[in-house]
Amino acid sequence: xxxxxxxxxxxxxxxxxxxxxxxxxxxxxxxxxxxxxxxxxxxxxxxxxxxxxxxxxxxxxxxxxxxxxxxxxxxx
Length: 76
Known about the structure:
Strands 1, 2, 3, 4 and 5 form a five-stranded antiparallel sheet that branches. 0% of the residues lie in helices and 36% in strands. The protein is elongated and about 40 Å long. It is mostly beta strands.
């Protein structure tokens, strides 16, 4: 994570997801946590913020059910 001036504030790693090695990309910061998406896995990671410091990054939500695979229509 970087501050608004580009200085590195913290570095966190994520464990492999259900598909393989993580590729972390977008993040959202709230008052109590940082949420990070993983474009290689259907997982959202979360790091709790304690005393202005982000804790370890952990798998928080498996989003596979939100994106079911498309199925061909009958008769196609």
